[in-house]
Amino acid sequence: MNLRHIEVFHAIRLAGSINAAAERLNVSQPALSRTLKHAESLLGFKLFDRVKQRLVPTREAELLFAEAVDVHGALERFRTLARNLGRNPDDVLRVGFLPSLGVGLAPKVVSNLPKHWEGFKIELFTHHYDVLLRRLHALDLDLAVAFNIVETPGISSTTVGTMSLTYLETDDPATQFDPSPVHLSEIDMQTFVGLEKESPVGVFLKAAFDEAGPSL
């Protein structure tokens, strides 16, 4: 099967009919039917059975569909990258932020831009870390702001500021705020609410716990 066969198969599987898939791909129904029949002849088995005006995927088609989703996703990323390479970015800056930074930091930064930036468009997006990386690789973002950036091939990073991780404890609401440091070994790990270990800050926090003794 070539890429066109996979694209047609993916569209029919999602749409449930030749007619709907043809509209989705903006091609004629006869052309789509011919492509499907050609794919089935190459494979040596049917991909769909016709049941009450609908095309129902066969068992083999369901097994292939999981792989087709990955191929289709890669094709969409390719198209996005190609489209972005052809865009003229001179008057638009696309910046991605982690959600925790996009609420407070992003508007503050934009509001403090110099006056000679007037007329320059800035598009702000909030995404989780893995989505920021994916959109940077696709040139769908010009830059991103996140915590503790992990070194990633194809993406350069620089430190623009530092922050402290703060431990909050609400064991006794009547107790006044105590700003003194708390050693990680003193934290009750049975009730501790931490961060996702795979996130950049989570990786940093896990390393700190490993060094201090208790298991995160």
The oligomeric status of these chains comes to single chain
Strand order of the largest sheet: 4-3-5
- Please, what is the average pLDDT? 83
Gyration radius over CA:
26 Å
Please give the number of β-strands: 5
The rounded distance between the terminal residues' Cα atoms is: 48 Å
Tell me the number of helical segments per DSSP (H or I, 4 or more residues long).
8
Describe the main β-sheet briefly. 3 strands, parallel
Class per helix and strand makeup = mainly alpha
Can you tell me the overall shape? Answer: elongated
Percent strand equals 5-15%
Element-level helix/strand string:
HHHEEHEHHEHEH
Helix content: 40-55%
Low-confidence stretches: none
Overview features:
11% strand; 8 helices; 216 residues; 5 strands; three-stranded parallel beta sheet; two-stranded antiparallel ribbon; mainly alpha; single chain; 45% helix
Description:
This protein has 216 residues and is mainly alpha-helical. It contains eight helices and five strands. The chain has helices spanning 3-15, 18-25, 29-43, 59-86, 99-102, 105-111, 129-137, 200-212, and strands at residues 48-51, 54-57, 92-97, 121-126, 143-145. A hairpin with a 2-residue loop joins strand 1 and strand 2. Helix 1 (3-15) packs across helix 3. The longest helix has 28 residues, at 59-86.
